[in-house]
Amino acid sequence: MTATTQIAVYAGSFDPPTFGHLDLVDRASKLFPRVVVAIGVHPTRVPLFSLEERLQLMQSICAPFANVEVASFRGLLVDYGKSIGARVIVRGLRQGTDFEYELQIAHANADLRPEIDTVFLPTRTNYGFISATLVREIASYGGDVSRYAPPVVCAALQQRFGAVSA
């Protein structure tokens, strides 16, 4: 097995990164010799944080993992995966309804690039309800998201939304 067959890519918008995302990074880093956390740029979505901000946040929270790097990509994930020599796409599953959607995407990816497999990691129970959307919503109303996101992300959210008075 060559080094290029051991690259796993974990992609998402990470807007903002959560403890659920960090848990998947941690677990993937223990399963694969090299993990690329890839922030996707979607042409029709307007993220809360710019690509540069999301890259900085992810680099900060992924710093403890020596075999993890953070990058960004445009276009199809499988094309990006091929360009970096990835053999595996890592996807997290929070709930049963995620599985149907993710399986459909995995089948399409396998059809486009059969040399790249998809591995599903179920979210740990305590992170199953956390989503970036939930964290953004709570933070937008001045709520405490410290149970859901790393401190650097909480600080960025507080700076973005400022203090909200009741």
Show the helix and strand layout:
Elements (H helix, E strand, L loop, with lengths): L6 E6 L6 H13 L2 E8 L9 H12 L5 E7 L2 H8 L1 E8 L2 H17 L4 E6 L9 H9 L10 H11 L5
Parallel strand pairs: 1-2, 1-4, 2-3, 4-5
Structure in words:
With 166 residues, this protein is α/β, with parallel strands linked by helices. It has a single domain, classed as HUPs (Rossmann fold), CATH 3.40.50.620. Helices cover 42% and strands 21% of the residues. It is built from six helices and five strands; from the N terminus they run βαβαβαβαβαα. Strands 3-2-1-4-5 form a five-stranded parallel sheet, sandwiched between helices. The longest helix has 17 residues. The N terminus is likely disordered.
Features:
single chain, 166 residues, Rossmann fold, 5 strands
CATH class: Alpha Beta
Estimate what percentage of residues fall within beta strands.
15-25%
Through-space gap between termini: 58 Å
Largest sheet: 5 strands, parallel
Strand elements, count: 5
The portion of residues assigned to helices is: 40-55%
CATH superfamily: HUPs
Query: Can you name the CATH architecture?
Result: 3-Layer(aba) Sandwich
For the largest beta sheet, what order do the strands appear in spatially?
A: 3-2-1-4-5
Number of domains: 1
Q: Please write the string of helix (H) and strand (E) elements.
A: EHEHEHEHEHH
Please state the overall shape, judged from the principal axes of the Cα atoms: globular
Low-confidence stretches: 1-5
Radius of gyration: 16 Å
The mean pLDDT is 92
Helix and strand composition category: alpha/beta
